[in-house]
Design a protein that fits this description.
The protein is an all-alpha fold. Helix content is 74%, strand content 0%. The chain starts with 6 loop residues before the first helix and ends in a 23-residue tail after the last helix.
């Protein structure tokens, strides 16, 4: 029997998970504010606004594709070698390859590096979430889930404030990628000093002793997740994890290059202000998402989040414009509502899967949506060109995807009031 962590160790685990997700958010927010400056610098005289928008879609798709692969591969690694070690590897991935972005000379090189950064970005989420929720009691999980959701968007907020002070231009952007390498120190700490999940250690001890014949050491994780009785659960998790991601990256993220295109010449810091307003709303929304799920119930909360996100995205792109008085308040409101999902997901997804496949299951449910998102962003890039380079038209068209959540959540199990499942055959723990 593995002893539970001390309160100090639990707080250390939570701090590590939060910081890993904070810097994850920095990576997610980096290209929306840097993309046009990078493209103007690397393309030189060949740059056009339409080409800049097309490259933004490509960079985003590369990151999403990498995150999808990383979430599956490194999420599965967390179930095999431990949450902390897989988390450390993931942080090192996004830190090292982000730092190398400071030395690129072509758009193609940056595209490859954004894919490699994505591997780490995708691996952090399932391992950080699984580590934290397994180290804290069930009654604390809404708070823990909210803090982790807020941390991810807190990274975007932090980045926006840095860029407001030191603005990005085609002549000055490489420093931001060098700054992105700093979290490597956190990755090394996770590998060496952060304590492991006692729940994972207990399951591993049972597997080694033969007490748990159904452990992932004996049955491949993917076969476990995509076979009965977990097949339906996995597919539902993928569906409800995909919709907010597709909405966020194929619709919401267009607001930043839109702000840059409209206001960049007269107000270079306006795009950072727009990202800051969105990120502030997102930090609050991500934290509140878990609390709303606890209050309204998992399914009802998701349905209301889907409706609200669709409405506010349409209002943002069709009802206002950068530099208008109402633009930044609307950006804040859309950021708040559309990111309620990202406090909801770290509370709900771990409840679907037993301990032996929790990181892999949560990672697949959350990150397979990034394959769809990558395809959606590339399609949106083509649609952007077809729509004549209109940012509001592409944002509004893609925002409709949120409405699918109202339908999808009807098939999802309601886990409200139950604890984590410790094995495929055991009952959930009680709150």
């Amino acid at each position: 029997m593995i002893a539970p962590l001390s309160p100090l160790a639990r707080w250390g685990v939570l701090a590590t998970a939060i910081l890993a997700l904070l810097f994850d958010g920095v990576e997610l927010g980096l290209m929306p504010v840097a993309s046009l400056s990078v493209s103007k610098s690397l393309l030189g005289a060949a740059y056009t606004p339409m080409l800049g928008g097309d490259w933004f879609a490509r960079f985003t798709a590369a990151l999403m594709l990498g995150a999808a692969v990383g979430g599956i591969v490194l999420g599965g690694l967390g179930d095999r070698i431990g949450r902390t070690r897989a988390l450390g590897v993931s942080v090192l991935f996004y830190s090292i390859f982000a730092g190398l972005g400071a030395f690129v000379e072509t758009q193609g090189q940056m595209l490859v590096l954004r894919f490699l950064v994505g591997l780490g970005v995708g691996g952090v989420w399932p391992n950080a979430v699984s580590l934290a929720v397994e180290c804290w009691p069930d009654k604390s999980r809404p708070m823990v889930a909210g803090l982790m959701g807020a941390a991810l968007n807190g990274g975007i907020l932090l980045l926006s404030q840095v860029v407001r002070v030191w603005t990005l231009t085609p002549d000055s952007w490489r420093w931001l990628f060098q700054w992105g390498a700093l979290p490597a120190a956190l990755g090394l700490a996770a590998l060496t000093v952060v304590p492991e999940s006692p729940v994972w250690q207990s399951r591993r001890t049972g597997a080694i002793s033969g007490a748990n014949p159904a452990s992932p050491q004996r049955i491949p994780v993917l076969r476990t997740l995509f076979s009965p009785p977990l097949l339906k659960t996995t597919l539902i998790g993928i569906l409800i994890g995909s919709i907010p991601l597709v909405g966020a990256w194929s619709a919401s993220k267009w607001m930043i290059p839109w702000a840059d295109a409209v206001a960049g010449a007269s107000a270079p810091g306006y795009k950072a202000s727009a990202q800051g307003y969105w990120a502030l709303g997102a930090v609050l929304g991500s934290f509140c998402g878990a609390q709303i799920a606890q209050s309204l119930g998992r399914r009802r909360a998701y349905a209301w989040m889907s409706l609200g996100s669709a409405v506010l995205t349409e209002v943002l792109f069709l009802g206002t414009r950068p530099l208008d008085p109402g633009f930044l308040p609307t950006v804040f409101a859309q950021g708040f509502v559309a990111t309620l999902f990202f406090g909801w997901l770290p509370l709900y997804l771990p409840e679907l899967f037993p301990t032996e496949v929790r990181a892999a299951g949560s990672g697949i449910a959350y990150n397979v949506g990034r394959f769809i998102t990558a395809a959606g962003v590339l399609a949106a890039g083509g649609l952007f060109v077809a729509l004549g380079g209109s940012y509001p038209r592409i944002g509004a068209a893609c925002g409709v995807v949120y409405l699918l959540g109202i339908v999808a959540i009807r098939w999802a199990p309601d886990t409200t009031g139950r604890g984590l499942i410790h094995s495929k055959t055991s009952s959930p723990s009680t709150p």
